[in-house]
Amino acid sequence: GKGDAAQVAGKVLAAIQLHFEFAGAKVLATASIGLAIAEPGTYEPSALLSRADSALYRSKAEGRNRWRVAA
Asked: For residue 58, which phi and psi values (nearest 5 degrees)?
């Protein structure tokens, strides 16, 4: 469900966050995640991907390095 997906998304973000040096500059790499949750047989795959994509762009617009669930 939504709670499990949120927990996994938080863990993925923490695991992906990476500090490294590039061309003499310190860089922080982060990620943004868009989630769409469906019950079996509820959504077509293309519709589910579209909802996840919208959630991804919402998470980026809100400051990146975060996750959002499609409404």
From this structure: -65, -40
Judge contact between 70 and 51, C-beta under 8 A: yes
Cα distances (angstroms) measured from residue 19 to each of 28, 29, 38, 64, 67? 5, 6, 34, 16, 20
> Quick one: DSSP state of residue 67?
E
Place of tokens 């293309």: 46
Q: Name beta bridge partners: 29.
A: 18
**Predicted local distance difference test score (pLDDT) of residue 50:** 92
CA gap 15, 36 in Å, rounded = 21
| pTM given for the model | 0.76
